[in-house]
Amino acid sequence: MMFIEKILRTISEYRGDYTKICARLRDLDSFKKPETSISEGSLRVTLSKLKKRGLLDNKKGRGKWEITPKGLTYLHKLKKRELDLPTHISKISSTKVKNMIIVFDIPEKERKKRSWLRIELTNLGFSMLQQSVWFGPAPLPDKFIESLDYLKLLPYLKFFKATEADIV
Description:
Elements lengths: L2 H11 L2 E2 H10 L12 H13 L3 E2 L6 E4 L1 H13 L16 E7 L6 H13 L3 E4 L2 E5 L4 H9 L6 E5 L7
Helix pairs in contact: 1-4
């Protein structure tokens, strides 16, 4: 979920002043990590931009933020675009012998699925040779193959047997 969507969802569920909204956003699991924490400046700038776009209103400068009807429509569109992606496969140990190359060419309109695939390949112990060429252990878990089939990604993937010595 992107930063703007998190702000819109938070404000749509809870109307409050700037300090309380900041606290609620910081309580979200995704913002508790140092690398994804919200800086004061970025939140202020984002709120200001959302207000200029007509997605939020600041109740005449009294510090109370509310989502506008236009903001609700925008949030609804974002929710409709969300994909029902399978849950991530938990990381497995990379002690298995790496003997598989996976090559894929997923169209740009399937960008979210492509990102999902890269995360899954990393979790499965694969390493990236190029953005669409990955090297890792075989056999692949059944759950992963089922997820690929569910997402209709199998036609875009090619699997090759190889060893590290085969890769020049």
